[in-house]
């Protein structure tokens, strides 16, 4: 059973508009969440993260929102640019007592930003 | 500074052959992860090491898969014998305590088993 779900396999947005990518999780022990971006023929690269003690984290055009009660997080990209076209993975981790936890990934959402 | 290095980038082999994938983590990183990406299952963790010691190999699909980390700068993932269903992209990633949960991925090895 998937613990991290990205229900939209693809999303198409016009350049300059907002892109909103969604992610749901089922494990209440998750306390750290990350977004990765992946271009074709490359490995995923870290984009932004959020700890469960926060509900928002912003980095330039990228903002991640966390709603713990709904077990939901979202990534907002404003404004969207054609270079943002990639597959975005949501990932979650449970950080046990100082030990590095596993990252559980969603299946990804392919974002296409059209000029 | 060099990122995670994986070799080969592409591998085509025939069913039954042995396949060895290689990874060099980022210097100073003490965690190393092997992932497999397929259309059906997405990105799934196979095994990870801390200070060269395997910590969790519960994601390794079966005994045909094995992984080693003989030193801090090198790891291998071996499939013997390979099967067509092993065709996937295999990623290696590394991280360190202090990077939070952020992992740094290599470019991947695209494996095709005929």
Keywords:
heterodimer, A: 115 residues, mainly beta, 6-stranded mixed β-sheet, 5-stranded antiparallel β-sheet, 11 strands, B: 114 residues, 4-stranded antiparallel β-sheet
Provide an overview of this structure.
The complex is a heterodimer of chains A (115) and B (114). Chain A contains no helices and 11 strands. By secondary structure, chain A is mostly beta strands. In chain A, a hairpin with a 6-residue loop joins strand 4 (32-38) and strand 5 (45-51). In chain B, strands 2, 4, 5, 6, 9, 10 and 11 form a 7-stranded mixed sheet that branches. Chain B has a 4-stranded antiparallel sheet with strand order 1-3-8-7, with no helix packed on it. Chain B is globular and about 40 Å long. Chain B has strands spanning 5-7, 10-13, 19-24, 31-38, 42-50, 53-56, 65-71, 74-79, 88-95, 104-105, 109-113. The interface between A and B is medium-sized, with 23 and 23 residues.
What string gives the helices and strands of chain A in order? EEEEEEEEEEE
Class computed from helices, strands and strand pairing of chain A: mainly beta
Report the total helices of chain A. 0
Percent helix of chain A, as a range, is: under 10%
Please indicate the percent range of residues of chain A in DSSP E strands (runs of 2 or more): over 45%
Q: What is the rounded distance between the termini of chain B?
A: 37 Å
Q: Based on helices, strands and strand pairing, what is the structural class of chain B?
A: mainly beta
Large-scale geometry of chain A: globular
DSSP, total strands of chain A = 11
């Amino acid at each position: 059973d998937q613990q991290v779900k990205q229900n939209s396999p693809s999303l198409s947005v016009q350049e300059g508009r907002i892109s909103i990518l969604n992610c749901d999780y089922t494990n209440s022990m998750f306390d750290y969440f990350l977004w990765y971006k992946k271009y074709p023929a490359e490995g995923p690269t870290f984009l932004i993260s959020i700890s469960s003690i926060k509900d928002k984290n912003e980095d330039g055009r990228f903002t991640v929102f966390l709603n713990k009660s709904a077990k939901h997080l979202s990534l907002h990209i404003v404004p969207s640019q054609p270079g943002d076209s990639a597959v975005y993975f949501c990932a979650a981790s449970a950080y046990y007592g100082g030990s590095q936890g596993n990252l559980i990934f969603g299946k990804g959402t392919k974002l296409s930003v059209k000029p | 500074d060099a990122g995670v290095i994986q070799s080969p980038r592409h591998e085509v082999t025939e069913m039954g052959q042995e396949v060895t994938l290689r990874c060099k983590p980022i210097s100073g990183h003490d965690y190393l992860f092997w992932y497999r990406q397929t259309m059906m299952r997405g990105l799934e963790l196979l095994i990870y090491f801390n200070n060269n010691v395997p910590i969790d190999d519960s994601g390794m699909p079966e005994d045909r898969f094995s992984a080693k980390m003989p030193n801090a700068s090198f790891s291998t993932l071996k499939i013997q014998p390979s099967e067509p269903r092993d065709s996937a992209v295999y990623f290696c990633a590394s991280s360190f305590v202090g990077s939070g949960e952020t992992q740094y991925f290599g470019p991947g090895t695209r494996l095709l088993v005929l």
